[in-house]
Amino acid sequence: MSSGDRKKAVLYHQLQQLRAATNSNALNKASIIVDASNYIKELKQKVDTLRQGVGTSTTPNPSPAVTVETLERGFLINVLSDKNSPGLLVSILEAFEELGLDVLDARVSCSDTFQLEAVGGENQGQADSIDAHVVKQAVLQAIQNWSQSSEQD
């Protein structure tokens, strides 16, 4: 195998790794790179959103940062707090239930910090469609209610 062939093989392998890492369905080099660029922009926006949510609070007991993204069928809901929050998960799940959202997939960490990543989809029998803003407001209200009830305990 010549040096040029090895370089082509390495480049092809690296492009396939980039394609896999960015969940791209593109087949040519330019499209894979464009998809990767868009993926990086999305990640930067998520980081900025999380920084804004965490960095804007100056109170000693900051509220968790909440982001909600619309998916093809449902929502991706992220809640992040820099401290353990006993009972918060139950409050958020109750808010989902009140909205008529089914939790399709979720990852939760409640050890030193609280982190929830959930995919919620609307119940099939629900006539009114809800949007990401409504979901975010419901989660924020659940957090506020939880915060008030935990302060009273």
Write a compact overview of the structure shown.
The chain is built from four helices and four strands.
| Biggest sheet layout | 4 strands, antiparallel
Q: Which word captures the global form?
A: elongated
Number of helices: 4
- Calculate the mean pLDDT score and round it: 83
Q: Give the helix level as a range of percent.
A: 40-55%
- By CATH's scheme, which homologous superfamily of the largest domain applies? ACT domain
Secondary structure tally: strands: 4
End-to-end C-alpha gap: 72 Å
In CATH, the topology of the largest domain is named: Alpha-Beta Plaits
Per CATH, the architecture of the largest domain is 2-Layer Sandwich
Spatial order of the strands forming the largest sheet: 1-2-4-3
CATH class of the largest domain: Alpha Beta
The portion of residues forming beta strands comes to 15-25%
Number of domains: 2
Q: Unreliable stretches, pLDDT < 50, 5 or more residues?
A: none
Rounded Rg: 20 Å
Order of helix and strand elements from N to C terminus: HHEEHEEH
**Category by helix and strand content:** alpha+beta
